[in-house]
Amino acid sequence: MQARHPKLTLTACILASSLAFIDGSVTNVALPAIGQDLHATPAELQWTINAYLLPLSALLLMGGAAGDHYGRRKLLIGGIGLFVVASLACAVASDLNLLLAARAVQGIGAAILLPNSLATLSNAFTGEERGRAIGTWAAASAIAGAVGPPLGGWLVDAIGWRAIFFVNLPLGLAAIFVAWRYVRESADGALPLDWPGAIAATLALGALTWGLTLWSSHRAFDAASATGLGAGLALIALFLAIEHHRGDRAMMPFAMFGSRAFAGLTLLTFALYGALGGLLLLLPYVLIEGGGYSALQAGLALLPMPLGMGLASRVMGPLTVRVGPRLPLSIGPLIVAAGFAALVLVAEGAPYWSTVFPGILLIALGMSCVAAPLTTAVLASVDDTHSGTASGFNSAIARTGGLIATAIAGAVIAAAGAGLIAAFHAAVLVGCGFAVASGLIAWATLGGLSAKPAQPPR
């Protein structure tokens, strides 16, 4: 049934998702300022990002399932409200522990509002109108991601790092008002929620992240990091056992992995988006600390990436329908790998246009070959009964890759001076390797996979 207020429903969903997309990119350029003000160590700075990504990665599927069960409008408004309250707590945090706690609550709010904003659109529109609404939502999300770094840089330079969290308040309150006033409630009466799986996944990611963060920031594999990694691996095994036991009632049904293509796409997503997440964290930090950039300049340095992806992705959707996802998902990561390799030109005092821009441009071009075909391929790799779960799981895997990459990035953040640039060069070469592996995985696992019209996740 078509929404009674379609434009306002779309507006509410765009405002809600913009909170998460902006906050996912805006904080990176503020890390040096946060570190100086709150006297944070490199490991603690990593947790400023990880505290947000951890609950977002682990609870994204649960957030969508809870909306299906209890009502998407209700969960959408609740997620926005939680995000707004947590943003205010971030803005007024007097020490790092309070900031990290508030960032974790932000991540929980984002894990609730993101899937329910898209599911609300899916339920509110039908036919071609649904496709246009989803396309508008995706374009607005790309714009929000593009605006984040330069907006954050300007706010940090002009006002201070706390302003990047205050800006969420009017946006969130507007989203709550429009959703409460104009969005129609919907629910499917879904199966009982997979709380055991969600708890095990959260604990597993938390232990792994803690162990990797200690290992990378201390540059030593000691007893504490070994304990964290061991506990994380054991909890992953527990999570897999729980999901296997729950069958079709699991948040990660094992039946999806009966598809070779879906398994390959999961590995591709983890490796490629992990490399990209690490770069989006490290590059602004290195430009500010090692290159003498202001926060605004560092934010603007990233701008060609989301803009280039947004423009080129419009061409890739129709092309994927004609040629299938295998070719673009094999070639795109190799172009990304070339972009990572080009970033070894970054050096102290080196000009932006000849050192940073070529790599950023290549990465934007390569990722534009990946974004639309990846969504299409994920939906085509499983049967229709698992399409919504598969799409949500792939999104969670992308964020998990970024979470793990951020945990490992401490080895770069802990360096200083010429050592910082050298560590960054090593990191981008590792990212290059992961991108190459992603392309090879796509070529090896997607043979015979044809595109089918994308269905929005529910």
Helix and strand arrangement:
Elements: H1 6-26, H2 31-38, H3 42-70, H4 72-92, H5 96-124, H6 127-158, H7 163-166, H8 168-182, H9 195-218, H10 223-246, H11 260-289, H12 295-301, H13 304-323, H14 326-342, H15 352-355, H16 357-368, H17 371-380, H18 387-408, H19 410-413, H20 418-445
Summarize the structure.
This protein has 458 residues and is an all-alpha fold.
Give the low-confidence spans.
453-458
Please name the fourth-level CATH homologous superfamily of the largest domain. MFS general substrate transporter like domains
Output mean pLDDT. Answer: 86
CATH class wording of the largest domain: Mainly Alpha
Class by SSE composition: mainly alpha
What would you say the CATH architecture of the largest domain is?
Answer: Up-down Bundle
Q: What gap, in angstroms, lies between the N and C termini?
A: 15 Å
Tally the helices.
20
For the secondary structure, the number of strands is 0
Total of domains: 3
Overall form: globular
Q: Determine the CATH topology of the largest domain.
A: Growth Hormone, Chain: A
The largest sheet is: none
Q: How much of the residues is beta strand, in percent? A: under 5%
Walk me through the structure:
It is a single chain. The chain is mainly α and 458 residues long. It has 3 domains: 1-190, MFS general substrate transporter like domains (Growth Hormone, Chain: A, Up-down Bundle); 195-250; 257-458, MFS general substrate transporter like domains (Growth Hormone, Chain: A). Helices cover 79% and strands 0% of the residues. It has helices at residues 6-26, 31-38, 42-70, 72-92, 96-124, 127-158, 163-166, 168-182, 195-218, 223-246, 260-289, 295-301, 304-323, 326-342, 352-355, 357-368, 371-380, 387-408, 410-413, 418-445. The longest helix is centred in the N-terminal third of the chain and has 32 residues, at 127-158. It is globular, with a radius of gyration of 21 Å.
